[in-house]
Specification:
515 residues, alpha+beta, 4 domains, 10-stranded mixed beta sheet, 8-stranded mixed beta sheet, globular
Length: 515
């Protein structure tokens, strides 16, 4: 069985895990839920938790590099370099990362004709209304911890390509503090939805109304590394905050003497919640160590160069990613290591589906073809019903009625191309003669899309079509039954820049859109 990912290079963020068979270290692309251990050759699969998973991004700069970065920053500003003593602290600050599908509608006028009057020299422009409707991927990161001066509100897109490690207390060393999560995923999603609504009004619509709808937001918790450096040379106090990966100085230094620090702490609204241990230090040293860094927390240092944050255990529940052996649940035989959600055991012929949310295993069907060069591409076929379904069928204007919504079960990089392929397939799939599949050979492509993901894509296609047809979002969702979902393999042959189905010659898609 072919894997849809065999022709592409690894991309996205990476997850560092250990093999349960031999204990060897692995670095797995987030898009690869099935892999093979490079040490012992055992097929493995990633199991995502039901609750949002948590990951950590380890520090890339050490103390020497941090000091070098700060000194170079000071030199560029024409300031004195760091002195002695220098104190360091590494911290992990939490961020929520949210990925989803976005349906957007943007209305604007477009200049199509421009003419100049030869007599008056006046320019005359003719405009036409243009409505752009499209599906796209959306990803964002938002700070999940308390206010921390200098820490950015977002880490941008770096969570998409950095190497992550599943979070656990055992992976956090004693010299690093993990800061408390104070914003849960529900609160973050509300913030994102509000910002998306504001996106509609950033540029006013020339006609109609701009719309944005989010589908199936998935969140995970990222602990991003930062380094704190404090310089107590002379009578001044300087504090720097550095990005733990690049070493970029995020917080410019501010020189304060001991009295000014003490006065600032007394006036600060945080002073009532700071808790700092001063035992065993002189009054002068104690005053120097008072640094209001984080709401509700204090920080101090000792002669052993050891900062201590008074942090609390995170109150947010999160799941831990697991790695397990990729075997048949019936006989224990190793399953193929190709990337797919569906497997047929070579030993006992039992079906294994990695989707945990469906209660009934899907039927696997295929359309017969005499074309020996055809490749079998998978599509999820989901039964539809209800008044919204009838209205949707009518709006398509199909020659023949259809009873199943067809969604590609392989990754497609362009969601608008996926939308067009869905519309071509759902009006044609019921006209094909489908037979049960007993074996999946090398002509069958892997299944990259799970049934629950297919349900989301089908819903997005439905909303996308309705918005284009009626210029508004539907008031009722289409009814789909995942208990009777089917996996249908359709034969396609390669012709120049396109794949064309080998039976009806009516379903096509571009070669370039396959991930």
């Amino acid at each position: 069985m072919k894997t849809a990912s065999s022709k592409r290079s690894k991309r996205g963020y990476y997850i560092a895990v250990g093999c349960p068979g031999c204990g060897g270290k692995l670095s797995i692309d987030s898009g690869f839920f099935v892999t093979t251990c490079s040490h012992c050759g055992t097929p493995l699969r990633l199991v995502m938790p039901e609750t949002p998973p948590a990951f950590i991004i380890t520090h890339k700069i050490d103390r020497r590099q941090a000091r070098f970065k700060v000194d170079r920053f000071l030199k560029s500003k024409g300031l004195p370099l760091t002195g002695s003593p220098i104190y360091f602290k590494n911290v992990f600050y939490p961020y929520w990362q949210v990925d989803s599908l976005l349906l957007r509608c943007r209305n604007k006028r477009e200049r199509v004709v421009t003419s100049i009057d030869p007599d008056s020299g006046r320019e005359t422009a003719v405009y036409r209304k243009k409505r752009k409707i499209f599906l796209s991927q959306y990803s964002t990161t938002i700070a999940a911890g308390s206010y921390f001066e200098g820490v950015p509100d977002s880490i941008g897109m770096r969570g998409q390509y950095l190497k992550l490690k599943p979070f656990s207390n055992s992976k956090v060393t004693d010299d690093v503090d993990v800061l408390k999560v104070v914003r849960n995923s529900t609160e973050i999603l509300s913030t994102i939805e509000l910002s998306l609504r504001q996106m509609n009004s950033i540029r006013s619509a020339d006609f109609g109304r701009n719309l944005t709808k989010m589908f199936n937001p998935e969140s995970r918790l990222l602990y991003f590394p930062f380094t704190i450096l404090e310089d107590y040379e002379g009578d001044g106090f300087k504090r720097y905050l550095l990005d733990g990966l690049s070493g970029r100085v995020l917080l410019s230094p501010e020189s304060l003497n001991a009295a000014a620090v003490d006065k600032a702490v007394q006036k600060s609204s945080l002073s009532s919640v700071l808790s700092i241990s001063l035992s065993g230090e002189s009054e002068t040293e104690a005053e120097k160590s008072i640094v209001p860094l984080l709401a509700g927390k204090g920080i101090r240092y000792s002669e052993s160069d050891n900062f201590e944050f008074e942090t609390e255990a995170p109150q947010i529940e999160f799941g831990e990613l697991q790695v397990e052996l990729h075997r048949c649940h019936n006989c224990g035989e190793n399953l193929p290591s190709q990337q797919s959600c569906i497997y047929i055991c070579r030993n006992c012929q039992q079906l294994t589906c990695l989707e945990k949310k469906i209660q009934v295993l899907p039927k696997i069907l295929k359309a017969e073809t005499t074309d020996k060069d055809a490749e079998m591409f998978p599509f999820w076929s989901i039964p539809v019903s209800g008044q919204a379904s009838d209205a949707f069928k009518k709006s398509l204007g199909a020659v023949s009625d259809f009873n199943n919504f067809a969604v590609p079960a392989f990754k497609i990089s362009n969601l608008e191309a996926m939308y067009r392929l869905c519309k071509r397939t759902l009006v044609s799939i019921d006209n094909l003669d489908l037979e049960p599949v007993e074996n999946l050979d090398n002509s069958f492509r892997g299944v990259d899309i799970s049934p629950s993901e297919a349900f989301v894509l089908a819903n997005a296609v439905y909303y996308r079509h309705w918005l284009e047809k009626f210029r508004k979002l539907p008031t009722e969702e289409i009814s789909m039954d995942l208990r009777e979902i089917r996996l249908c393999y359709l034969p396609f042959k390669a012709e120049n820049y396109f794949y064309v189905d080998s039976i009806l010659n009516s379903i096509t898609f571009e070669k370039s859109i396959i991930d």
